[in-house]
Prior knowledge:
Layout: H1 2-8, E1 13-14, E2 22-23, E3 37-38, H2 62-81, H3 85-90, H4 103-115, H5 117-128, H6 134-154, H7 162-186, H8 188-194, E4 200-205, E5 208-213, E6 222-225, E7 234-239, E8 242-245, H9 247-250, E9 256-258, E10 263-264, E11 269-270, E12 275-281, H10 287-300, H11 304-333, H12 338-351, H13 355-374, E13 377-379, H14 382-388, E14 393-397, H15 398-402, E15 403-414, H16 422-444, H17 450-461, E16 469-475, E17 479-484, E18 487-492, H18 494-497, H19 499-503, H20 507-518, E19 522-528, E20 531-542, H21 546-555, E21 559-563, H22 568-578, E22 582-584, H23 589-601, E23 606-610, H24 616-621, E24 624-628, H25 633-638, E25 641-643, H26 649-684, H27 696-721
Parallel strand pairs: 14-21, 14-23, 21-22, 23-24, 24-25
Antiparallel strand pairs: 1-2, 1-3, 4-5, 4-6, 6-12, 7-10, 7-12, 8-9, 8-11, 13-25, 15-20, 16-17, 17-18, 18-19, 19-20
Helix pairs in contact: 2-4, 2-7, 4-6, 4-7, 5-6, 6-7, 6-12, 7-13, 7-27, 10-13, 11-12, 11-13, 11-26, 12-26, 12-27, 13-26, 13-27, 14-26, 16-17, 21-26, 26-27
Family: Belongs to the cation transport ATPase (P-type) (TC 3.A.3) family. Type IB subfamily.
Membrane topology: Multi-pass membrane protein
Protein name: Copper-translocating P-type ATPase
Amino acid sequence: MVHDLLKDTTVTYTCSMHPEITSETPGNCPKCGMGLVLQGSTDVALPGAIPHASDKHAGHTAASFLRKFWIGLLLSIPVVLYSELPEVLLGVRMPTFPGMQYLGPLLGSIIFFYGGWIFLIGAVNEIRAKLPGMMTLISLAIVSAYTYSMYVFAIGATHALFWELATLITIMLLGHYLEMRSIDTAQHALRELAALLPDTAEIMVGQVTRGVTLAELNVNDLVIVKPGGKIPADGVVIEGESQVNESMMTGESKPVEKKVNSTVVAGTINGDGRLVVAITRIGEGTFLAGVMRLVAGAQTSKSRLQVLADKTAFYLTGIAIVTALSTLFIWLSLDKGTAFAMERFIAVLVVACPHALGLAVPLVVAISTSIASRNGLFIKDRLALEAARTIDIVLFDKTGTLTEGAYGVNAIIPLTNTTTDADKQATVAAREQENILRLAASLDFASEHPVSRAIAGEAMKRGIELFPVTHFVRVPGKGVRGIVRGMRVEIGGESLVGSKMIDGLVQDVHREIALLAGKGQTIVYVMADDNPIGVIALADIIRPEAKEAIVALKRLGIKPVMVTGDAEEVAEWVAQDVGIAEYFFRVSPHDKVEKIKAYQEKGLRVAMVGDGVNDAAALMQANVGIAIGAGTNVAIESAGIVLAKNDPRDVVKIIRLARLTYRKMVQNLFWAAGYNVIAIPLAAGALYAWGIVLSPAISAIFMSVSTIIVAANALLLRRNGQVL
């Protein structure tokens, strides 16, 4: 029998995006090019792999358990009705008919082989993996009940256990269905990611277009993405402008502007513009595939609590078997009858099934990972999320993390506002600021210098219409000049306007400019016909979310620290603006690692937040490495947690989620383990003298209720996750 089970245990690989595609060998999906995974698991399949013991339902679905449950329930009803139970409990005897003595053995056998076969397969997988667990216990119970009952029937004796067998298997099927449905619900986010890709793509070949499957796409193919269409693979826009919905990747609800040279990722949804995209990555190399691997890996990776739960379940299985055998021999020695002793034996095996214990942590892991992915937080290492709850200090890199990593206009100072009317002064200043920006942007629009691009970009952001420019000239090392509306306009630094003219500015303006320059900001003067009309200060723009993130961290009792390779005045300005008291400047990548080590030597647990490029070593040294912006391979390799958005507030979300997740795991483990302290003695008959005895079916109900409680508690995490 065992040989037949082993022979029938097959390994099937399927595509996450196209489940109708199956194979008995690993490979790639012929439709989308994604790697096939082990059916019933989110793990990446390996050649020759067999379902792991923890993947006890490999090859089965929630629907199959539900179907088996209903059939088992229908067959169990006549078995129960024609057992001794109705007469004992209700004094009712069912009508007799010829051959009724065969009803229990016949229907019991059908239920055993049809409904119980899943558990037998699972037990074989657990034994092959040398990790006996809940499926082993269930199988021992139903095999013992069936074998004993058939023996009793064969010798013509009474007190067979067919009704206990039928109800036990039926209730176990219902419990497993509820468990699988809970897990399926928890993994819904992963399936949503898998469904993002379109089935086909439209590529350009010369002047002709044709539709192809995703598996036929190649790097450098030109793909047309129509309005409302899904982007089939990662690439770069070479023609067209549009807004792309990247919410499933980043959690950002606002569409992102895309134009020539903008990067796009597979699975995102195009807006109302037509785009032509040059493909850069396909199949397993796309960002979406990487995200799916992160989510799947996180759902199956082990945390410390998961390891503890696995060990506890393993030992509990051994304890249950020893206790069940001891119970059998004790009741036999007390002459309570073989049927009674067998009932106690089976009840102990059933009630001690570490079902709830096995579900306590994995279900929380699946749900927390789904919550994280919906918020654009991708967990590469479960240990990183577990460690995030204990963080004492968060080190932020400045550029690209707390700031946007690009020049932006920080201030515009008019130099010609002479009005003394306080009510009119603000209005006049705003109008003059707009005029200064319009003149400067009109001239800078033709320049590729980062400062010029920032000024022109600010004008476009404000919707300011630019003036035509003639006689445009770049002045190397100084700035630009040209004719705008008949005026000779010049834009540049001190070297362009001359120190005497700067010294001639009024004292208040001079002081304000000096203050901005002292913060490390770039000062640009705007001249019209040799007269200074305004000053534009530019700096690396601080992210508006940074201050909110720092405040939230402090509320959680976590100390924020900033490390940057920038100058002292710039570091001081950013730190003061966002509310960070401790900061380090002119810090090299190596120095960042040393700073982290210094904190760790003091017994502090450190999280490092960086862009994943220059900060790779620091991300790996930290107790928790958090890469902000998930677009780089370095980020994925060096960090345990990857944030899809460049939003420092997501660091706070990670810590909150880590604390919620840990709390749910501890609650579930406490219930799952503590339940057995009471349940096993009851099933063994410890209170028999007081008339309290648990039948195998009632034991199965208790075990299933325990599992449902654990699942329901885990699902509460989803409600808590809405307040991240």
